[in-house]
Write a structure and sequence with these properties.
By secondary structure, the protein is mainly alpha-helical. It is about 65% helix and about 5% strand. It has one domain.
Length: about 240
């Protein structure tokens, strides 16, 4: 009986992540429910490359513990892991809209560092390639992702990386990563092969998990801002 209850833990995890933001989406000041036509395409756009990445890395960079996941698999991934790429970015976009509404002034300011921030982040791309070639594949890939999204942000003119609000956003997402990934890695729902990473951990969380999470959420946020501005311009 206890064994079967354990297998629902990752599913319950996803429900806990999304239930608050979902219920609060109808709050009058935020009115996040009105943004759903931008939210879901952005979440889907971020989900596709990360599902492919996750599937390719499963069984090599990391493994899912069958004790805490249902037996249903899609592309080698537990169905709860696929849900993760919906529940987490949805909740993070809800946080992003809260920051837009409740942190005016300097936090809503546009430029904080001009192009030097982009240059710094884009420089992660060649560093990531070197680490990838050296065998630290997980470390290399997360740095390549951040560098690539810096370029995407510039090309789409969303300028997420230049907004003061983004610094607060990244800190909040990092705090959430610490709370939730601590559970996933300490339980452990997710087990890592240390040879593909730097094996530097914050509590039980590989440091690469933070960059992986930030990359995923920033990609979704870039797509969200792009769709939001493009479709609003047509109205």
């Amino acid at each position: 009986m206890f064994y079967y209850a354990m297998k629902f833990e990752y599913l319950l995890f996803n429900l806990i992540v999304i239930i608050g933001p979902l219920l609060m989406s109808f709050e009058k000041r935020i009115q996040f429910s009105r943004q759903w036509r931008y939210v879901f395409p952005a979440v889907l756009g971020g989900m596709i490359p990360y599902i492919v990445w996750d599937s390719a890395a499963t069984g090599r960079h990391w493994f899912f513990n069958p004790l805490y996941t249902l037996d249903m698999r899609w592309w080698k991934l537990p169905i709860e892991e696929c849900m993760f790429f919906v529940t987490v970015p949805y909740s993070c976009l809800f946080i992003y809209e809260n920051l837009r509404a409740f942190l005016p002034g300097q936090y809503g300011g546009y430029h904080i560092g001009k192009e030097w921030i982009r240059v710094l982040l884009f420089s992660l791309l060649p560093i990531g390639i070197l680490l990838l070639r050296s065998g630290k594949e997980y470390t290399g890939l997360v740095l390549i992702a951040i560098g690539s999204y810096t370029f995407l942000d510039r090309q789409l003119h969303t300028n997420i990386f230049l907004q003061a609000r983004t610094a607060v956003y990244v800190l909040v997402v990092g705090l959430c990563t610490t709370i939730f990934n601590w559970y996933l890695t300490a339980r452990p729902v997710l087990i890592y092969d240390p040879q593909y990473q730097l094996d530097i951990r914050i509590i039980t969380i590989p440091i690469e998990d933070y960059v992986y999470g930030w990359g995923h959420i920033l990609l979704v946020t870039i797509l969200y801002e792009y769709l939001h501005r493009r479709w609003r311009a047509k109205e």
